[in-house]
C-alpha cells in the first residue's frame, strides 16, 4: 500500500499530463493527452477527464489521498478557476470542481499555477532543495516562475506570485500581450530569442531549425548574432532576477525550461549580467542554477501541492486554494 500516493495533473497549451506520485517523488503511473486548445471549453475538459480516467483505472487508485493540479495561467487558486492564455475557451473555468467530480468526489483537490508548481518541485526534489528563499523559473515559450520564502512556497492569494515573466525590464521596450511594455518574457522567451536573431541577420543551418534551440546551436559554434541574442535574453533575465532578489531577498534562482537547455550559452552571460544588476550587499551572493526536475517538474509540483494540506515535506505549499472533498 502506498500511503502517500497522490494524483497529479500538469495542464498546458500543448499537453495534459497526469501521474500517480508517491511520497518520495516516484512516478508510478502516467497518462497523457494532447490539449485541444483551439476547441471548446468542454472539449478541453473532456481531455482532462480522459487523463483522470486512466489514472482512476489503475489498481493503485484506492491508495490515492489527494489530487494536485498545476495549470497554465492565470489561475485563481482561491476560486478554483483557470484562464490560461494559451487555452482561449477556458476563462474562469471551474477546473477544481470538474476534477473533484471526475476523481470521484471524495478527494481534496489543490490548484497552483505552473510556475508555482515548478517552484514546489525544485524546492522538494531539485536545485532549490535546502534553500529557504528561492525563485524558480521556467524559460520556454513564455517565462514564468514561483517563489519560496521563509522555507515555504509563496503562491500569493490567487496562486500567481512569482510571475517574473511580466516584470518590466525595458521601460521603452516593445508592448507585451499582457499590456505591459518591455517585459522579461518579451525579451527572454524562446520565440523572442529566435525572432531577434532572425531580424538581425542570423540564418539557420542545414537542418532549417529557426527555434531558440537552433540559435543556441549557432551560438555554441560562435555565431556572433546568435550569441548576441542570447546575451540580450540573459540580460533581461538577470535584471528580473536581481529585482526579485532585492525585493524579497532570495539566495538562489533556479532556471528551467527549454531555453535553459542551451546550457552555458545562457548561463554564462546570465551569471555575468547578474553581477552588474545584483550589486547590493544582501544580494551579491545570489547564485543561479539549472533546474533538475526536468520535464516532470509540473507533475512533481502538482503532487507537492496535493500533499500540502498534510505538509509531509518541509517547504511545500500550505493552504493552496482548492476544494476539499
From TrEMBL:
SUPFAM superfamilies, per database record: Actin-like ATPase domain
A Pfam family that the UniProt record links to this protein: ROK
InterPro entries, sorted: ATPase_NBD (IPR043129), ROK (IPR000600), ROK_cs (IPR049874)
Gene3D superfamilies recorded: 3.30.420.40
Recorded family membership: Belongs to the ROK (NagC/XylR) family.
Name of the featured protein: ROK family protein
Organism from which the protein derives: Streptomyces lichenis
Amino acid at each position: 500500500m502506498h500511503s502517500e500516493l497522490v494524483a497529479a495533473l500538469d495542464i498546458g497549451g500543448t499537453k495534459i499530463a497526469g501521474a500517480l506520485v508517491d511520497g518520495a517523488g516516484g512516478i508510478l503511473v502516467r497518462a497523457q493527452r494532447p490539449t485541444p486548445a483551439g476547441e471548446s471549453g468542454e472539449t478541453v475538459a473532456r481531455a482532462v477527464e480522459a487523463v483522470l480516467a486512466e489514472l482512476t483505472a489503475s489498481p493503485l487508485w484506492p491508495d490515492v489521498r489527494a489530487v494536485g493540479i498545476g495549470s497554465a495561467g492565470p489561475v485563481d487558486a482561491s476560486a478554483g478557476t483557470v484562464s490560461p492564455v494559451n487555452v482561449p475557451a477556458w476563462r474562469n473555468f471551474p477546473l477544481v470542481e470538474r476534477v473533484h467530480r471526475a476523481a470521484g468526489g471524495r478527494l481534496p483537490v489543490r490548484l497552483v499555477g505552473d510556475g508555482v508548481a515548478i517552484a514546489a518541485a525544485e524546492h522538494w526534489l531539485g536545485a532549490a532543495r535546502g534553500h529557504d528563499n528561492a525563485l524558480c523559473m521556467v524559460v520556454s515559450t513564455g517565462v514564468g516562475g514561483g517563489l519560496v520564502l521563509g522555507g515555504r512556497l509563496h503562491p500569493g492569494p490567487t496562486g500567481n506570485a512569482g510571475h517574473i515573466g511580466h516584470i518590466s525590464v525595458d521601460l521603452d521596450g516593445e508592448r507585451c500581450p499582457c499590456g505591459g511594455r518591455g517585459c522579461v518574457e518579451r525579451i527572454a522567451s524562446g520565440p523572442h530569442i529566435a525572432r531577434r536573431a532572425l531580424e538581425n541577420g542570423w540564418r539557420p543551418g542545414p537542418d532549417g531549425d529557426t527555434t531558440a534551440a537552433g540559435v543556441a546551436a549557432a551560438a555554441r559554434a560562435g555565431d556572433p548574432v546568435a550569441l548576441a541574442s542570447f546575451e540580450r535574453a540573459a540580460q533581461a533575465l538577470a535584471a528580473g532576477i536581481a529585482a526579485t532578489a532585492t525585493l524579497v531577498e532570495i539566495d538562489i534562482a533556479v532556471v528551467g525550461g527549454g531555453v535553459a537547455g542551451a546550457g552555458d550559452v545562457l548561463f554564462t552571460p546570465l551569471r555575468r549580467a547578474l553581477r552588474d544588476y545584483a550589486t547590493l550587499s544582501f544580494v551579491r551572493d545570489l547564485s543561479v542554477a539549472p533546474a533538475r526536475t526536468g520535464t516532470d517538474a509540473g507533475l512533481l509540483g502538482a503532487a507537492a501541492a496535493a500533499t500540502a494540506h498534510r505538509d509531509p515535506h518541509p517547504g511545500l505549499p500550505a493552504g493552496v486554494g482548492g476544494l476539499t472533498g
